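User: Please fill in residues for this 275-position structure.
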C-alpha cells in the first residue's frame, strides 16, 4: 500500500467520523426539543409510508406522497419557522462535551437534600416556587436577564428567595452545577392546549422551558401546596416529597453512570441465573 493510499484512507476515516459526530450532536439536541422531536417522527412516518407504497405498488398513495416529499421541506420551513429557529439557538447554547460539571454522588445528594428541604417548607407554608436545574443546554440567556447570585445551594437561601414580598418571589431560580446562579428568571410559557386550565403561570413556564431546553423544573403551587416536576415537556403533577427526591436523584445522574449501572445489574442477574 502506497503512502497516497494510506493518506486517502485516513481522510475517508476522518470524513466519516466528522459526519457521524455532526449527526450525533444534532440528533442528541433535537431529541431534547419536544416539538421538533414530534416533527421528526411525523417526517419518518411519511417516509415509511412512501417505502410501503413502493413495495406494495400503491400508486395513488405514492403519487400523493411524491408531492408531499417534493413540497414538504418548503412548507415545513414556513410553518415551523419558530421551532426551527429555537432548535438552531438550542444547538448554539449546547455544551459541546455535555455538562460543564459532573457532580459527585455526595454533591448530588446534598443538592437534592437542600432543594427538597426548601420545597417541604414552601409546601407547608403555601409559598409558590419555581426552581430550574440546567443540564446539557446552557440557560445563560435567561441568567443574563435575571438577578445573578452565584451562591451555594441551601434550603434557607431558596426559602428566602421565594418568601412573599421578596422582589424575586415571582421569578424562577436557576441552578447550574452545585450553585444557585440566578433568581427572578422569566421563562416562556407553554402553548400546549392539553395543559389543564387549573394550572397557573409557574406550571406553564416550567413546561415551556423544558420543551425548549434540556433541564429540570420543580414547582411548588402557591394555591394548593402541591409539588410537581417538569422534564422534557412532560409534567409530573402532585408528587410526594419522596417521589421528588427519587426522581430528581435519578434525573441528575450522569448518563454514563446510568449505563454502567444497567450493565452491572444485567451482569448480576446473569450471575444469579447461572447459580
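Assistant: Residues filled in for all 275 positions:
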Amino acid at each position: 500500500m502506497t503512502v497516497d493510499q494510506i493518506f486517502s484512507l485516513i481522510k475517508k476515516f476522518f470524513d466519516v467520523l466528522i459526519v457521524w459526530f455532526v449527526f450525533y450532536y444534532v440528533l442528541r439536541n433535537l431529541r431534547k426539543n419536544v416539538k421538533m422531536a414530534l416533527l421528526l417522527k411525523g417526517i419518518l412516518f411519511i417516509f415509511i409510508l412512501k417505502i410501503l407504497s413502493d413495495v406494495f405498488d400503491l400508486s395513488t398513495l405514492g403519487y400523493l406522497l411524491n408531492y408531499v416529499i417534493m413540497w414538504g421541506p418548503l412548507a415545513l420551513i414556513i410553518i415551523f419557522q419558530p421551532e426551527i429557529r429555537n432548535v438552531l439557538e438550542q444547538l448554539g447554547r449546547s455544551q459541546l462535551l455535555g455538562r460543564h460539571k459532573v457532580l459527585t454522588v455526595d454533591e448530588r445528594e446534598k443538592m437534592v437534600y437542600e432543594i427538597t428541604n426548601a420545597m417541604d417548607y414552601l409546601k407547608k407554608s403555601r409559598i409558590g416556587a419555581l426552581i430550574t436545574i440546567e443540564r446539557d443546554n446552557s440557560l445563560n440567556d435567561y441568567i443574563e436577564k435575571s438577578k445573578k447570585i452565584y451562591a451555594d445551594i441551601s434550603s434557607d437561601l431558596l426559602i428566602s428567595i421565594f418568601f412573599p414580598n421578596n422582589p424575586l418571589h415571582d421569578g424562577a431560580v436557576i441552578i447550574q452545577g452545585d450553585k444557585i446562579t440566578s433568581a427572578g428568571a422569566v421563562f416562556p410559557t407553554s402553548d400546549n392546549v392539553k395543559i389543564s386550565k387549573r394550572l397557573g403561570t409557574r406550571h406553564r413556564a416550567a413546561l415551556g422551558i423544558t420543551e425548549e431546553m434540556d433541564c429540570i423544573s420543580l414547582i411548588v403551587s402557591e394555591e394548593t401546596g402541591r409539588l410537581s416536576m417538569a422534564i422534557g415537556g412532560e409534567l409530573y403533577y402532585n408528587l410526594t416529597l419522596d417521589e421528588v427526591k427519587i426522581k430528581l436523584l435519578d434525573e441528575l445522574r450522569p448518563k454514563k453512570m446510568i449505563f454502567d449501572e444497567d450493565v452491572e445489574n444485567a451482569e448480576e442477574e446473569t450471575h444469579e441465573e447461572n447459580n
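For context: Residues 177 and 263 are 26 Å apart (CA to CA).
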